[in-house]
Amino acid sequence: MDKRITLVTGASRGIGRAATLELARRGHHIVAVARSKLALEKLDDEIKAEGGSATLVPMDLKDPTAFETLGQALATKFGRLDGVLGNAGILGTLGPLQAIGPRSFEETIEVNLTANWRLIRAMSPLLQRSEAPRAVFITSGVVPRPRAFWGPYQASKAGLEALVAAWADENENLKLRVNLFDPGATRTGMRAEAMPSEDPMTLPTPEEVVGKLVPLLEESEMRTGERITYRD
Question: Are 28 and 83 in contact (CB under 8 A)?
């Protein structure tokens, strides 16, 4: 494989989908991870229509062994990984903490935080085989600006930021560059679910946001351990 090989979680919609298409246009081979096989196949058709290539991985991020299995498969098929975009996430239940059920709380933490630890653990050996490995994880503005009723979601994203900061520091003197990206309010389904009364036309599209996100996965990006925001 003479292309950069980049894995994207949550690749079938929103920011993940826009990033996947833009990375493919830039010549990356995409390892596209999402829950829906049908949505991945539609995405693959779009990638191929523009001359790109992808490996499709239908996956439930709550499966504790899924990333380990995927890592083994990628090691056999490609022998390396050049980039990781940890984009997948869920909003969970918004409301008073005492009203949130344990199942919803645990699912939010598992998808937004634990799954990214599993991703890091499984993909680190493959990234170390790359000449210029890059990793980016999507965070949220609720971390520096906590608010009422967003408890599980903002706790999961705060945990993710701490996790990613540790990984970046552990690799400070190695080739791997690791950063966080905060897209801010974006015209996505998750944003509409969180803010149903908001006019979506006042928000940037995912395609606009990934113009600043995607370069973080290129070989030329040398920053590490930083929290980069779309609106900076």
Answer: yes
Q: Which residues are catalytic?
A: 153
The CA–CA distances, whole Å, from 21 to 56, 86, 91, 208, 218 equal 13, 15, 24, 12, 15
pLDDT value at position 59? 96
Other CB atoms within a 10 A radius of the CB of residue 232 amount to 8
Q: Amino acid letter at 180?
A: L
Residue type, 133: P
Q: What domain count does the chain have?
A: 1
- Kindly state the tokens that stand for 170: 């552990």
46 closest CA partner among 67, 62, 66, 32: 32
List the structure tokens of 216: 């973080």
Q: What angle do CA 121, 43, 31 make, to 5 degrees?
A: 25
This model's pTM is above 0.85: yes
pLDDT digits (tens, 9 = 90+) for 31-57: 999 999 999 999 999 999 999 999 999
CATH code for the domain in which residue 208 is found: 3.40.50.720
Candidates 219, 128, 216; CA nearest to 180 is: 216
